[in-house]
Amino acid sequence: MGKLAAFVLEILRMCLLLLLTIGLLGGLEYAVFKLLYGWTIYPGSAAVGNIILFFVLYRNYWQFRGWFKSDKNQRLGQHLTRSLVSLSLLLILLPFAVPLLN
To answer: Which superkingdom, per the lineage (predicted)?
Structure first.
């Protein structure tokens, strides 16, 4: 398989993984929010947090199990990974704290 074909397949795989990750995490957050508060909101900050979490998962795990192999593939640093995961969790949990402040 040529490098271009592997690259195209990897981009399609990445888009599918992004949709699945955002769909599963967003649905879970939506259900938990509705269960806790009895009403629904569509939190934008949680979506950004989910995208950051996907980025960390892709760079540290999923990119090494795909079709496109490159010498430039490398994991994120440990400090950057912890910082991004912390930011992601803060953004995901932020909509849950807002109703408590009112």
So the answer is: Bacteria
Task: Report the pLDDT value the prediction gives residue 102, as an integer from 0 to 100.
Answer: 64
Alpha carbon distance 6, 41 (integer Å): 39
Assess whether pLDDT exceeds 90 at residue 45: no
Residue by residue, what is the 3-state secondary structure of the chain?
CCHHHHHHHHHHHHHHHHHHHHHHHHHHHHHHHHHHHCCCCCCHHHHHHHHHHHHHHHHHCHHHHCCCCCCCCCCCCHHHHHHHHHHHHHHHHHHHHHHHHC
How many domains is the chain partitioned into structurally? 1
User: Which sign does the torsion angle of CA 6, 66, 73, 21 carry?
Assistant: positive
